[in-house]
Amino acid sequence: MRGFDAVTVDDLAAAGGVGRRTFFRYFPTKLDVVLGQLDDALAGLVSALAAVPGTVDPTSAARRAFLQVNAYSPDDEPVLRRRLTLIETVPEVGARAAVRYEGWERALAADAAARWGCAPGELRPQVFARVVVAAMRGAFTVWLAAPDAELESLVVAAFDDLARGFG
Amino acid sequence: MRGFDAVTVDDLAAAGGVGRRTFFRYFPTKLDVVLGQLDDALAGLVSALAAVPGTVDPTSAARRAFLQVNAYSPDDEPVLRRRLTLIETVPEVGARAAVRYEGWERALAADAAARWGCAPGELRPQVFARVVVAAMRGAFTVWLAAPDAELESLVVAAFDDLARGFG
DNA sequence: CGCTAGTTGGCACTCGGTGCCATTCACACT
DNA sequence: AGTGTGAATGGCACCGAGTGCCAACTAGCG
Predict the structure, then answer these.
(1) Which residues have CB under 7 A from strand C?
(2) 3-class SS at B101?
(3) Is the pLDDT reported for residue B113 higher than 70?
(4) CB contact at 8 A, A35 and A93
């Protein structure tokens, strides 16, 4: 894991048996080799949110959507662990991941605003959207540190904290 | 504002009447020209948190600390607006800012764990820390979009949402 | 005056990323 | 078969960020 920078794009291209120029046609950035799937997850989140009836409150809707999107099969968990470890340990990767999360936040803000019947630009949906992503990140961090923990129950607990509040 | 990339380091160095090499001795990265002050804010947050009595609950402590750190004088607000605009509009800058926020999150998790009497690595302080920063970011976003809004009251409202919960 | 330590900045280099263009290859259409 | 066309490929040159190395300057101090 030491040395994400140590692996140059030329290495990756050569490893893929492809020219450097071609590499950049498939991955807009070296970081996208690691983070590409996050966009798929965003798409999944959006459709999962849309599938929840409009009468459900935003927190429950987000909880359902995230549980659905994060329902990884046991085979995929090692890959997810590696990816999240990279995100947490390599600042460059974490920075890029944060940019991706902004897309999630926009989707969540729009969804919450629709359910609350207010504008997405208002304070409450804006705070809600960021807070939901934050809770998920917290669950991920704890999951990474505790190898025996179950991701699903951590996500549920994080959302419970959110719903209950921290007052 | 168009063109953060368009301004090269050579431009900045020349504008500062200094050599390119010397520029990199003062700013480890081009982005630090914009984000350097965030570290000062982190230091301020840490000391503000430490100044709140240990008997105060984490949410109230964080609210006090953030109100103190974000108490900008009217003269500084335009600068803050510019910086936050850069953070929100230029992905590169936003990405780096997110990395800085992680330092805030670590400080908040440690503080909350101490107040709750649990380990910082547990789910609740981890979620709490990220959620607090998320709420602040939400308040910033709304403040940026509404020029007449008062930052302080937005922060207060965001923390109220946090305390009340979203259930 | 000479010595030393810290600041400076020029130079060359690596690496990520982009634009341009020649080559190749598949699949048509005649 | 021959030809034409469009997409994928990848080599090449280029730019900008960031780094290591080292020479030159500028204190300060004996």
Answers:
(1) A 5, 7-10, 20-21, 24, 28-31; B 18-22, 25
(2) helix
(3) yes
(4) yes
d(CA A99, CA B90): 10
Question: Could you tell me which chain B residue has the CA closest to the CA of A165?
Answer: B165
Q: Indicate the length of chain B as a whole number.
A: 167
CB B31 within 8 A of CB B93: yes
Contact B47, B111 (CB under 8 A): no
User: pTM score, two decimals?
Assistant: 0.90
User: Considering CB atoms only, which of A123, A126, A134 is closest to B131?
Assistant: A134
Chain B hits for A162, CB-CB cut-off 8 Å, are 127, 131, 165-167
Rounded average pLDDT over B26-32 = 93
| pLDDT of A54 over the 90 cut | yes
Closest CA to A106 of A71, A132, A83, A70: A132
